[in-house]
Amino acid sequence: MACILFYGPFNQHSRDAESLMIAFHQQGHRVIFLSQQEGHEVIDFLQKNNVRAYAHALSGKRSGGWYYLRHLFFFTHFCWKHHVDIVYSHLEPANFVASIGQYLIRGKTYLCRHHINEGQLYKFDKDLYYRVTYRLARKIIVVSNHARRYMIEKEHIPGRKIMHINLAYNFDLYPKPEEQKVRSIRKEFQADIVLLVACRLTEYKRPDAAIQLVQKLMDLGLDVKLMVLGKGEMFDELQTLIVDMGLQKKVFMPGYVDNVLEFMMAADFFVHPSLLDSSCVAVKEAGLARLPVIVCEGIGDFNDYIVHAKNGFLVAPDKFVQDSTEIISQHFSNKELLNHMGENLRKSVLELFSIENVIEQYDALNNAR
Fold this sequence. Notes:
Rossmann fold; 16 helices; alpha/beta; 2 domains; 369 residues
């Protein structure tokens, strides 16, 4: 059995990574987690599940050569000290360190990339650290075929380096929703149509489009409310937009919550205007909650498993508000259809992203010699 290190800048739960760590531990591997941040939430959870977990958070600015050099030194020393055989590095700050550190350790290193074109959209794809990461990488795991194609065609990364493995979840790790709390949320946000957004509140996630959607539905005379879950740099801007549009009694921003499934079970539609996804976690969670989703076609892996009007709705990214208004106004009262779609989405998510259906691909990596 191997000693497997998961490395990343995690502070909060990452259910896909946690699922793999616990599964590998149950298989008999020696599994270790190392965070570049404090990682209190995820570390406490892993330790309760018998996975050894550590944090190495550095004070001061989280960027620059000296910052990454100190992380590189610690990462290299840590791998030798714990006799690490395999590294799964997640997210860009850790991937940069691991892309260099892999040449200084004896273990195999896999960089796990969770985005497609974020570098291009936020204009860091030309940064030295980003280019170094993927030029030096020996093996890269991406979570969608779309990401693999983009890297080959747009970033000119050799295809032999890149493998696609779906996100893998032990869905039993999610706390079981409590019916009483679901009813309480529904009562608090009582309306004929309750919409939900759950994402990082950033420019390319476009949470403002969901607020505009509320206004369009109201213009049709519909009784609608919107719950916006999450935090991000747009939080204050969105609150201002709500006031400017006079929607204080229609749009609510609870922020980050740890019972997202209960909010989803209290909603009628999950609306996701995002232009920035590789394999959206929140849509998987919506499927677990049997909540109908409206997502943008051609984004991430949605076209791989969302079948329009069967297990979700695919709309044109540049017509999200218009198309979503039409879909919701036409179908909100058809509970039989919506329940059927929610159940179909759940089946699709379980089939493609349950850990028992994905783990064989990781077993091949862990057992390779």
